[in-house]
Design brief:
Length: 482
């Protein structure tokens, strides 16, 4: 049955108008917890995207000409509106994505926090005056918005991944065309209504749903788009970087990870288990900073495993709308199959199940929080991101071995480790080839710190004072004849 929820729009938002696809085609959106159809969204393609880009281009001169203070006030208003509607936006997010309502509302408030942070940063886009090597000249450096931004976002954080891109883009004076993931388009389209309420002029923000390759293709090919910001898988990210080369766009890529979570013998085990739960099971394991591999030192291995298994077993699995639920369903059947594949492969190579290991009795795409031991580097999960509630525990003996194992991946997004030895803390943090390191903490993402990876986890930073730089071009002005 189709039910309409607050902020649920079954139309794309282009140039301040709510539109259908040119050919009236639609995509169906489902609730992953119940399988129920939530509704449809337009299946837009190349032509609608070209119009959205033209609208963003037309809106650019007036938006960038506004004072930073003016843009900041509008962004603060947008953040207020998001916060005031956190319940409704959270419910919409849980319905289409599956995560618990508490996590969904947390995400919505996190979106507001990003928008508010960049409202402030809008007013701190400083330039430079450089001492001139020539008499009678001045060297000025200013920063300008890059122009029209194309943003492609994933289903695991359907609201906050947009906030991280829209916030700095608008703060910098850019306009934006957003393509949310087809599994979770409503939280993306809701930004149209939120921006409208905040008084953001038509064309500054556009949101299109539909074919990834058609919308993505136009965003990549159109020379008016000067920057692409993408959060998603590494293979698609590589493809987009390649496509962006034709018009040499500036790119930011937040791609896959293979986060290690190292527990040394000298760690506080209870604290490590607490951190492990959040680093592993947040969003049912479906985040790019989720632990993919637990590396545990031999002396503490058994006690850590016992405590992690007990805590994993105690997690309440269910429909995210039900009170107290901590683990919602996975996004779809394909996601469940990947977890099953990783478990089957590991068991075939000698791993043992400590807890879980199967589809949950609730059916659908629910899966049991699972702990495996006896892991070895030849198993699939050692290389490939599971993106599900699977905790594989690898045993190690020495610090060098742990660091080597942690770095033995093409990815380099988030990493975590637990120790009470100060010297080791510095040593290991400096030796981990990752963009982010949590020491004795399992949840480190905040709007004030730079989020981003190295190696094949991508390029660019989101959040923090660094996050706005990706949306700015540096201009050098030489003033002579003085
Ligand atoms: P995930 O595996 O997390 O779904 P994807 O990289 O497949 O990650 O998808 C992330 C986002 O990229 C989604 O919005 C998706 O629609 C979009 N996408 C997928 N394929 C393409 C493509 N060929 N061109 C542009 N965008 C794409």
């Amino acid at each position: 049955m189709t039910r309409t929820l607050a902020f649920q729009h079954e139309a794309a938002y282009v140039d301040g108008q709510w539109i259908g696809a040119d050919d009236d085609k639609t995509l169906t959106v489902r609730d992953p917890a119940t399988g129920e159809t939530l509704g449809t969204v337009p299946a837009c393609g190349k032509a609608e995207t070209a119009r959205a880009i033209a609208a963003a281009e037309a809106a650019l001169p007036a938006w960038r000409a506004r004072t930073a203070k003016d843009r900041a006030q509008i962004l603060h208003r947008l953040a207020n509106i998001i916060e005031q509607n956190a319940d409704a936006l959270g419910t919409l997010l849980t319905r289409e994505q599956g995560k618990s309502l508490a996590e969904a509302k947390g995400e919505v408030n996190f979106s507001a926090a990003y928008v508010r942070w960049f409202a402030e940063e809008a007013q701190r886009i400083y330039g430079d005056v450089i001492p001139s090597p020539w008499a009678g000249r001045r060297i000025l450096v200013t920063k300008e918005p890059v122009g029209v931004v194309g943003a492609i976002t994933p289903w695991n954080f359907p609201s906050s991944m947009i906030a991280r891109k829209l916030g700095p883009a608008l703060a910098a004076g850019c306009t934006i065309v957003i393509k949310p993931a087809s599994q979770t388009p409503y939280s993306g389209l809701a930004w149209g209504e939120l921006c409208e309420q905040a008084g953001i002029p038509a064309g500054v923000v556009n949101v299109l749903t539909g074919s990834a390759s058609a919308i993505g293709g136009e965003l990549m090919d159109n020379p008016a788009v000067r920057k692409i910001t993408f959060t998603g898988s590494t293979p698609i990210g590589k493809k987009l970087v390649e496509q962006s080369a034709k018009t040499l766009k500036k790119v930011s890529m937040e791609l896959g990870g293979n986060a290690p979570f190292i527990v040394f013998d000298d760690a506080d085990v209870d604290r490590a288990v607490e951190g492990a739960l959040i680093a592993k099971y947040r969003n049912s394991g479906q985040t790019c900073v989720c632990t993919n591999r637990f590396l545990v030192q031999a002396g503490i291995h058994d006690s850590f495993v016992a405590k992690l298994a007990a805590a994993s077993e105690a997690l309440k699995v269910g429909n995210g709308l039900e009170p107290g639920v901590q683990q919602g369903p996975l996004i779809d059947e394909k996601a469940v199959e990947k977890v099953e594949e990783h478990i089957k492969d590991a068991l075939g190579k000698g791993a043992k199940i400590v807890t879980g290991g199967h589809r949950h009795r609730l059916g659908g795409s629910f899966f049991e929080p699972t702990v495996l031991t006896g892991m070895t580097p030849d198993m699939l999960v050692a290389r490939d991101e599971t993106f599900g509630p699977l905790s594989p525990v690898f045993k190690f003996d020495t610090e060098d071995q742990a660091v080597r194992m942690a770095n033995d991946t093409e990815f380099g997004l988030a990493s975590y480790f637990y120790t009470r030895d100060l010297a080791r803390a510095f040593r290991v943090a400096e030796n981990l080839k990752y963009g982010m390191v949590g020491i004795n903490e399992g949840l480190i993402t905040t709007e004030v710190a730079p989020f981003g990876g190295v190696k094949e986890s991508g390029m660019g930073k989101e959040g923090s004072k660094y996050g706005i730089e990706d949306y700015l071009d540096v201009k050098y002005v030489c003033v002579g004849g003085l």
